[in-house]
Amino acid sequence: MNKQYNKVVKADLKHLYNLFWEIKEGLHGFIKYKEIYKDAKLEGEQLWWENGQLFSKLFYKEGKQEGEQESWWENGQLMSKYFYKDGKKEGEQLTWHRNGQLVSKEFYKEGKLEG
Questions:
Q1: Where are the beta strands (DSSP E) in the chain?
Q2: What are the mean pLDDT values of the chain's consecutive 10-residue runs (115 residues total)?
Q3: Do the beta carbons of residue 62 and residue 78 sit within 8 Å?
Q4: Which residues of 75-89 are buried (b: 16+ CB within 10 A; e: fewer)?
Q5: Which among 9, 44, 7 is positioned nearest to 25, based on CA atoms?
Q6: The whole model's pTM is what?
Q7: Residue 21 has what pLDDT?
Q8: In this predicted structure, what is the pLDDT of residue 47?
Q9: Rounded distance, CA 83 to CA 81, Å?
């Protein structure tokens, strides 16, 4: 499949960096992007690094992010684990450095940072 995707993805890594990627096949080390639909509605997205390692798994319900959202560094180390409910961050949100060290641990309720 040689389709190109022009999609902007924001990596929400508050304590590391905010970075925007313009995703096109083969650009910035990404080679595969997949959207998952059910009844013509987006239910998920997956993106892989050039080395075949999964970069991210995102899930949606009625067009809003829902459930556990994970991303990984190209070395396979977990980068982030966020939880969403009705499109808003909910509960524990974790971010790691590529060396495996925990960078941030935050708690959200209905999309608002607590503590």
A1: 7-13, 17-23, 30-38, 41-49, 54-61, 64-65, 67-72, 78-85, 88-89, 91-96, 102-109, 112-114
A2: 35 32 45 79 84 89 90 92 95 93 94 90
A3: no
A4: eeeebbebbbbeeeb
A5: 7
A6: 0.69
A7: 35
A8: 85
A9: 7
The domain locations on the chain are: 34-114
Closest-CA residue to 65 (of 49, 50, 52, 80)? 80
Q: Tokens representing 97?
A: 């450095």
Phi and psi of 27, rounded to 5°?
-85, 140
The full length of the chain comes to 115
Tokens standing for 89?
A: 């961050």
Q: Which tokens in the block code for residue 15?
A: 């304590």
pLDDT of residue 1: 33
Q: What is the pLDDT of residue 108?
A: 95
What are 69's strand-pairing partners? Answer: 82
